[in-house]
Amino acid sequence: MKKLVLFIPLVVFLGLGVFLYKGLFLNPQNLDSALEGKPIPAFQLEILEKTGETLTNETLKGKVSILNVWATWCPSCKYEHPFLMTLARKDILPIYGINYRDERALAIRELSREGNPYTINIYDHKGRLGLDLGVYGAPESFLVDHKGIIRYRYAGPIDARIWKETLYPMVQELQAEAAKDGAS
Amino acid sequence: MIKTLIKGLSAFILLLSMASVANATPVDTYQFKSPEKQKRALSLAHSLRCPQCQNQNLVDSNSPVAQDLRLEVYEMVDEGKNDDEIIEFMTSRYGEFVLYKPRMEAKTYVLWLGPIGLLLFGGMIGFLFIRKQRIAESNTEELTSEDQKELDRLLKRDTK
Fold first, then answer.
1. How many angstroms separate the most distant Cα atoms in chain B?
2. Residue A161: CB partners within 8 Å, gap ≥ 6?
3. What is d(CA A111, CA A123) in angstroms, rounded to the nearest whole number?
4. CATH match of B30-103 with 1.10.3720.10
5. Per the CB < 8 Å rule, is B64 touching A101?
6. Chain B: nearest CA to A132, how far in angstroms?
7. Which run of H or E residues covers position A144?
8. Does a structural domain hold residue A7?
9. Is residue A25, in this structure, part of any structural domain at all?
10. What is the distance between the alpha carbons of residues A176 and A172, in angstroms, rounded to a whole number?
11. How far is CA B35 from the centre of its chain?
């Protein structure tokens, strides 16, 4: 028994070692969103392509959708763009774009050149909506249910793997939920 | 001699003061309504973490997000909002993570009480260890006079 007591420090040390070793492989950019479970913040912003025409958070309700924060100054968004194009072609859910802290002319030119996967693009020039969404970089994506509640946030570019493993199963779940409520 | 010394010293002080300017963090041209508000806003911004460059606070960082948030904090202070309201604003958007000093709650107990726990644990082990040694020391038996005689006899036999 007394001999066993001598092993306590070793056990404590090993436990701490395993704990800290695991910590080495955590991604510090993976923060939980404070907004999961909360509605899309209220906003009134212009549509990217139509100066003067505004839309609000109410516009985004009704369907399970994905809200994608992007900008022309963001290299990872360019990496993400082809996947968004394939996703848009599959027509699974509307992709709402938030053009974040960007220049209107540049953004429109980029979309006409590279293709436009977005159902609607919201022009968030000052980044106010981004701030209310807790965005700290682009790209970021939010899964929104048919009631306009944010259900999941993904920071970083979406690609085929993340879509298949994480996002699509959640989308299916949310769409089933929506169908139960009688929405599409 | 003394004059050159003073000259050298003043040059050195000038250099030092310039060094501190060079070290200054991003300066915003924000006009506060009062110096007290400025002080409060700056200390708040110092206690909040930039969500993008995670090892810098809002004042240190020059990332666009930090600039926006810093300005937001300044404006809210100027509007007369209290610290709790501003911290609530930040955490409701960016999560608890932006607080350099986490709040005391169920999931941060380990963080706050862990070091005290470890100190107590270490202290307890140290105390037990020392006490055990003391007991071991005080347990050395003294020789009775008969034992002493026997010992002397044996020692003498060896020297003979």
1. 102
2. none
3. 13
4. no
5. yes
6. 6
7. strand A140-144
8. no
9. no
10. 6
11. 28
Q: Which chain B residue shows the shortest CA-CA distance from A136?
A: B52
Q: What is the ipTM of this complex?
A: 0.72
Which DSSP category does A54 fall into? E
Q: Looking at the domain assignment, is residue A103 inside a domain? A: yes
Average pLDDT rounded to a whole number, residues B91-114: 86
Q: CB distance B51–A35 less than 8 Å?
A: no
If one counts the domains in chain A, the total is 1
Q: Which two tokens stand for residue B64?
A: 């666009």
* pLDDT above 70 coverage of chain A, percent: 96
CA distances, B6 to each of A141, B11, B156 (Å) = 63, 8, 81
pTM of this prediction exceeds 0.90: no
Residue A39 near chain B (CB below 8 Å) = no
- Helix B64-78 crosses helix B35-46 at what angle (to 10 degrees)? 140
Q: How is A94-120 classified by DSSP, letter by letter?
A: -EEEEEES--HHHHHHHHHHH----SE
The token pair that represents B91 in the structure block:
């955490």
Band the pLDDT of B17: cuts 50, 70, 90: low
Query: In whole angstroms, what is the distance from residue A110 CA to residue A31 CA?
Result: 30
Q: In what order do the strands lie in the sheet with A95-100?
A: A50-56, A44-47, A120-124, A95-100, A65-70, A140-144, A150-155
Residue A20 lies in a domain: no
Q: Closest chain A residue to B72 measured between Cα atoms?
A: A131
Residue A65, both tokens: 């959708």
What are A100's strand-pairing partners?
Answer: A124
The ranges of chain B annotated as CATH 1.10.8.640 are 30-103
How many residues belong to chain A?
184
Instruction: With H, G, I as helix, E, B as strand and everything else as coil, classify residue A183.
Output: coil
Query: The domain containing residue A54 runs over which residues?
Result: 33-180
**A169, A163 in Cβ contact below 8 A?**
no
Give the domain CATH number at A52.
3.40.30.10
For chain A, report the end-to-end CA distance as a whole number of angstroms. Answer: 67
Which residues does chain B have within 8 Å of residue A71's beta carbon, measured at their own beta carbons? none
